[in-house]
Amino acid sequence: MSTQRLRNEDYHDYSSTDVSPEDSPSEGLSNFAPGSYQRFGDNNNTTWFQTLIHLLKGNIGTGLLGLPLAVKNAGLLMGPLSLLVIGIVAVHCMGILVKCAHHFCRRLNKPFVDYGDTVMHGLESSSSGWLRSHAHWGRLVVDFFLIVTQLGFCSVYFVFLADNFKQVIEAANGTTNNCHNNETVVLMPTMDSRLYMLAFLPFLVLLVFIRNLRVLSIFSLLANISMLVSLVMIYQLVIQPLVHVFQRIPDPRHLPLVAPWKTYPLFFGTAIFAFEGIGMVLPLENRMKNPRQFPVILYVGMAIVTAVYISLGCLGYLQFGASVQGSITLNLPNCWLYQSVKLLYSIGIFFTYALQFYVPAEIIIPFFVSRAPEHCELLVDLCVRTAMVCLTCVLATLIPRLDLVISLVGSVSSSALALIIPPLLEIITFYSEGMSPLTILKDALISILGFMGFVVGTYEALAELIQPRSSHITTHSPSAFI
User: Fold this and answer.
1) Where do runs of H (alpha helix) occur along 125-208?
2) pLDDT-based confidence at 451, cuts 50/70/90?
3) Which among 14, 45, 197, 200 has most CB atoms closer than 10 A?
4) What CA–CA distances, in Å, run from 164 to 161, 173, 174?
5) Higher confidence at residue 219 or residue 114?
6) Distance of alpha carbon 363 from alpha carbon 110, whole angstroms
7) Which is it for the CA torsion 6, 9, 11, 15, positive or negative?
8) pLDDT digits (tens, 9 = 90+) for 379-393
């Protein structure tokens, strides 16, 4: 790794983390450059431990809760093995991105380049005249997939909030203080989940009207705390049969080791959705006091993330079996403790919506505001924000199944950012300087894998949406443990 310190205090970047940005994208619009993003965190450089925490926070989120169903779609044996392989490949692609960024920092004498800049400079260094003349498309493609990914995250949040609140309200009449009895719950039917999404719409619109994210940093802290407490309680539930000898582990023999191949693309989309944290890699490395420590932190942090993913995916599937739903929170027992966990995690997701929303807002809003009369800038800003939130709500209502919207977002955009672009970028960047055929073959295979996942995963998610193979579970499934 280069010993050059990759630092630029004026650089702004977003990533798919839930760390609080500093400033509003609408402030200083005259200095806005297309594709530039507001950098997360404060102005102080981070230690290795702080960087590790940010890395963990940026990767452990909503996608984690869908992994038990993902393991079901792959099989009890194929699921964890595939998660391990996808995790290794995703981390390798993160390392490729850092390597290419370092190369252009040295070559162009720049302190820092972001994901879009790296792709653009890679195309500019290509031996193909057509690629060089269209190098600016590299940044536009990265920006496009960032927008699609982040708006997809926001749509996932709409579905997540609606499903969890609907279940809590419908089961309220059967909710008890006893979390250990497997009791049948008589649901109290309420309105359709789409109406819950519409009910959340005005509150989320008001939330994104807060343009200064210094104010939202307090809510971000509360969101992180609530989600952490909820995850601890969920883990306590799924590992309980393992740590208490008097409780019986659900019999796994009836669970298939390898699921039908038709459902595997849905697993791929969910898995790559969970591992899509590549946008945060360069900003975190740039912020470090000692950037040379970053590769070790990256590999250690992602090893922890992969272990968490595999453990919760497998244990959650073992615990709830074939009845596992799109989010493991929907399988929690009907007692007030775990109903509170659902609400607590939902509160964290609610406030995280505004932070994820700022990524596409930083790219899209200045385009419209810069073309509006000066006295209308604020009105245009708020109108565009409202339209973007409404768009994510419409997308959520069109795909009201949490498992499908997660798989679709992962297949469409996350696979491009995490698997397809980085290997191609390495080939374009270093081909003229000499690359071994083995490295070229490796990069080509990774990109082909990502592209196949993109095509097949998108097709299967849309096909399942149009014509489900089996009736979707909409009622609460009681806990599988006794």
Assistant:
1) 129-133, 136-170, 193-208
2) very high
3) 14
4) 5, 16, 16
5) 114
6) 23
7) positive
8) 999 999 999 999 999
Structure tokens at 88: 């290794």
Q: How far apart are alpha carbons 233 and 309 in whole angstroms? A: 16
The closest of 344, 366, 39, 358 to 208, measured between CA atoms, is 358
**Which two structure tokens, joined as six digits, stand for 179?**
């979390």
| Mean pLDDT, residues 52-61 taken together | 77
Rounded-to-integer distance, Cα 166 and Cα 199, Å:
11
Residue 414 contacts residue 279 (beta carbons within 8 Å): no
pLDDT at 423: 95
Tokens of 478: 């009681």
Here the contacts of 336-341 (C-beta below 8 Å, separation 24 or greater) are 336/175, 336/176, 336/177, 337/177, 337/179, 337/233, 338/179, 338/233, 338/237, 339/168, 339/171, 339/172, 339/175, 341/229, 341/230, 341/233, 341/234
Residue written as token pair 């998610």:
461
Angle at alpha carbon of residue 357, lines to 36 and 120, rounded to 5°: 30
Give the Cα separation of 53 and 56 in Å (integer): 5
Closest Cα partner for 154 from 419, 389, 465?
A: 389
Place of tokens 């193979």: 469
Tens digits of residue pLDDT in 216-236 = 667 777 777 888 888 888 888
Tokens 């609530």 label which residue? 226
Length of the chain, please?
482
What is the pLDDT of the chain when averaged over all its residues?
A: 79
10 Å CB burial of residue 110 (0-12, 13-18, 19+) is middle
Structure tokens at 282: 């360069």
- The reported pLDDT for the residue numbered 386 is 95
Q: 315 with 332: CB under 8 angstroms?
A: no
Distance of CA 235 to the CA centre of its chain: 20
Q: How do the residues of the chain divide into helix, strand and coil, expressed in percent and rounded to 5? A: 70, 0, 25
Phi, psi dihedral angles at 326 (to 5 degrees): -60, -30
Structure tokens at 102: 């370092």
125 and 133 Cβ atoms separated by less than 8 Å: no
Q: How many CA atoms lie within 13 A of 327 on its CB side?
A: 27
Checking 131-136 for CB contacts under 8 A at 24+ apart, the result is: 131/428
| Owner of token pair 């749509």 | 155
Alpha-carbon separation of residue 183 from 3, 48, 174, 282 (angstroms)? 61, 48, 9, 49
Q: For residue 394, give both structure tokens.
A: 């419409």
CA dist 352 and 153 (Å) reads: 10
* For residue 191, pLDDT beyond 80: no
| Residues 6+ positions from 256 with CB-CB distance below 8 Å | 75, 76
